[in-house]
Amino acid sequence: MAWFRRLIHVSSSIGSSIKYRNLNPSSPFLFTSFSHFSTESTLQTQSPNDFQYPGLRPTKPGEKPRVVVLGSGWAGCRLMKDIDTSIYDVVCVSPRNHMVFTPLLASTCVGTLEFRSVTEPIGRIQPAISRDPGSFFFLANCKELDTNNHEVHCESVTDGENNLKPWNFKISYDKLVIAAGAEASTFGINGVNEHAIFLREVHHAQEIRRKLLLNLMSSDMPGISEEEKCRLLHCVVIGGGPTGVEFSGELSDFIIKDVHERYAHVKDYIHVTLIEANEILSSFDDRLRQYATKQLIKTGVRLVCGIVKDVQPHKVILNDGTEVPYGLLVWSTGVGPSTLIRSLQLPKSPGGRIGVDEWLRVPSVQDVFAIGDCCGFLESTGKPVLPALAQVAERQGKYLGSLLNKVGKAGGGHANTARELELGAPFVYKHLGSMATVGSYKALVDLRESKETKGLALTGFVSWFIWRSAYLTRVISWRNRIYVAVNWATTLVFGRDINRI
Amino acid sequence: MAWFRRLIHVSSSIGSSIKYRNLNPSSPFLFTSFSHFSTESTLQTQSPNDFQYPGLRPTKPGEKPRVVVLGSGWAGCRLMKDIDTSIYDVVCVSPRNHMVFTPLLASTCVGTLEFRSVTEPIGRIQPAISRDPGSFFFLANCKELDTNNHEVHCESVTDGENNLKPWNFKISYDKLVIAAGAEASTFGINGVNEHAIFLREVHHAQEIRRKLLLNLMSSDMPGISEEEKCRLLHCVVIGGGPTGVEFSGELSDFIIKDVHERYAHVKDYIHVTLIEANEILSSFDDRLRQYATKQLIKTGVRLVCGIVKDVQPHKVILNDGTEVPYGLLVWSTGVGPSTLIRSLQLPKSPGGRIGVDEWLRVPSVQDVFAIGDCCGFLESTGKPVLPALAQVAERQGKYLGSLLNKVGKAGGGHANTARELELGAPFVYKHLGSMATVGSYKALVDLRESKETKGLALTGFVSWFIWRSAYLTRVISWRNRIYVAVNWATTLVFGRDINRI
């Protein structure tokens, strides 16, 4: 684009040559003229039937091999952080340009933490993708996989931008790491996608925060009936896993401290109900679970044993016919395989995840690996499918990162060159323990490998302190560590943020 | 709603009476039953023809008089902060529940500051609206004014919530303060509202940040043509007032530091063009203006003298026929009267603002005042209409706050009771000076009352330091002062935030 270069040239030469006193706003020197502008419109478009997509071609023997990572969650980011970029070029394909520190996401829904304190840009986790000529981050979704040709087909993300058409391209890989995560399970219940909010991404937390504040203000309008006030301020959480319990705890903290002070007119109308079909926190042992239950009830959370049958715009229908009116409905009933994962023609583990062997390889295809919530051990390995936890995903990312580095150093980095290589020790998962807060400076910490083994299992304020300290040190960057600490401090001193922006 | 109270009762009695060891998740005591739920749907609706709207009735002689404030900008918030809530009940009607610290809004577009560091909830500026039984904040727009009956007709804001219908209500006032601000001027140019982004509210800054990051990532997709890359990364700013200049400076800082480091693949394609029909920063004197011009050009901002004729989805057409392709278009050409202000049957000042006398009263109607960007002195006062500046608005809010307190103390708080009261000194505006940053740690500071008078006029790093210090002390709350300082520090150390959330 010649006009661009010409403009830059004119601008900078003006900047350096004109003397200070000669500068005069009406002088023709001051303003760059646009007379050289190209007037033809050359907007780029792609025909939907155009299968000759542009893309990154296969690497050549002398070049660095290319690792393509699908996803930017715990697994993919840990792998990218650990991969040796002197051996590999890294290409990440994900619909979001950041990683979410999921254990702290519930805290952002009520303003205890800020959204940006729990997100880390991929470009900071692995700086090579912003700088190296062969490494990239693409804000895109994987649409198709061609394992025969070692290719991934992608479509760019253009959300919310009407003027931008999705752009299709393909990427040749030497190694492919599928770390695309899972989807929230709706169990096929009608209305969940339309009316409930999940709690897996930052935009979910943003939606919850906006809706909660809107409902608090809407319920205070003159003439709103008592019944409608109760409905608007009834926060219903479906699913009593760690996410649902932590979110309920955060909500009750928000109500006890901030709603009572900042929305005093309606404080007696707001309530939290947690609906769970079985037991809350089923992965914890009896004693911890009972403590959590007692604690939640004490802080005003209503625990209801029920199964959701139908979700309507303003009420949930339970299996026994009970209607539960709600103003805010949060759905946290666990995860299942995503549409992409279901569509892939690859071996599957029990539960429909991508099946992997002990080295996290997808058998039957060359150079394809899967890690995190989207993968599970194949039945033939004799190992159980691991739970969809951050620590499982991170451990797999770490393992596969060093495995790929080893393979690369041994000369097996390029496509189809690692068939005969010795891979070493397989991936073994050792559970480090579980933690969950229940609000009011209380938490559960279970540092045992499983419910049956011996070890440390704590409840109360000390647990809460361990919970906070552990996460503060786990937060990936120093920047976010500072922000999480500052957020916690200002929440303590000034209360939670209630700007509805 | 009887079921609600029953549930609370059951929950809390369980919480206190059941012993720890007896807690068992399968016990019927633990989970509250929903069997008492009302199953009739009693969702509240309003007929559009229902003119018997609910609302706040006129105050009675023994009660506190009610001041209704329309708007939550500089003028309205300063007034609410200063009003004596032992004399008055305060009711604020605004479509946003916070005040925006506008001078720092441009910094949030590129991540130098966070959005929440420049916003302050109304409930913190005037805590009475969250607590006092007669004071309220309503998230609503004023639709109509009935000065004969001392009434305001409002409609609630439900943006983005499909399941919530707007709610109509009316409020009787004893004193009405119109502080509803102004609207961005488009000069009737086709396409501005559709394709350009203004820079007046936090959601504008959010949109700019999201779009800028999306364009940076979209331009790095495989196969995007050179021309399309240039277009996507061409940031065009229309209007060379303080907002346009400060935003251009922030953008060039972002490009020089963060794009070069974090988006190295496309760094040579991104450019900023500032289009202005006359002179940039016309309110500053020649020397400062020339400095700003030189500084902007030096940091790579292209200054173009031109008038926009038409705005199309991907290009701006200038008066001379030049086509300027853009990826991001920010419109900051000043403000004019809003639709509400234009629709009100009140006296008008030159320029179409609500006309006020020297005491900021709207003549011809009782108990109505106007402050901030929406008002201007009537021609009959012989005074010029004041510029749409934060300091004008704030000063007017402060003046009117103490005027109303005085009137209230003298027993003139209620409607139609202040006719004969002596109001004291009229409002006089004294300009304290102007400031603007131009990026690269440089700013202009002009501490003179007008261009003609003598006084301090500085440029460069010292000015920039004064600019930052002045705003840091002006930020309303300690919470935000901490956050602005922490944001500036982390930007310096870690760079700007590039999470696209």
Automatic annotation (TrEMBL), chains A, B:
Q: Which reaction does it catalyse?
A: a ubiquinone + NADH + H(+) = a ubiquinol + NAD(+); a quinone + NADH + H(+) = a quinol + NAD(+)
Q: Which residues form the FAD/NAD(P)-binding domain?
A: 66-397
Family label: Belongs to the NADH dehydrogenase family.
Name the UniProt record assigns to this protein: NADH:ubiquinone reductase (non-electrogenic)
According to the entry, every stretch annotated as the External alternative NADH-ubiquinone oxidoreductase-like C-terminal domain falls at: 431-497
Please tell me which top-level EC class this enzyme sits in.
oxidoreductase
Keyword Mitochondrion among record annotations: yes
Q: Which GO-annotated molecular functions does the record name?
A: NADH dehydrogenase (quinone) (non-electrogenic) activity
E.C. code: 1.6.5.9
Q: Spell out the subcellular localization from the entry.
A: Mitochondrion inner membrane
GO annotations of cellular component type:
mitochondrial inner membrane
Which domain of life does the protein's organism represent?
Eukaryota
Question: What is its membrane topology?
Answer: Peripheral membrane protein
Tell me the cofactors it needs.
FAD
Question: One Pfam family for this entry, by name?
Answer: NDH2_C
What task does this protein carry out? Alternative NADH-ubiquinone oxidoreductase which catalyzes the oxidation of mitochondrial NADH does not translocate protons across the inner mitochondrial membrane.
Keyword Oxidoreductase present in the record's keywords: the answer is yes
Chief location of this protein? Answer: mitochondrion
Q: Which InterPro entries match?
A: FAD/NAD-bd_sf, FAD/NAD-binding_dom, NDH-2, NDH2-like_C
Alphabetical UniProt keywords: FAD, Flavoprotein, Membrane, Mitochondrion, Mitochondrion inner membrane, NAD, NADP, Oxidoreductase, Peroxisome, Transit peptide
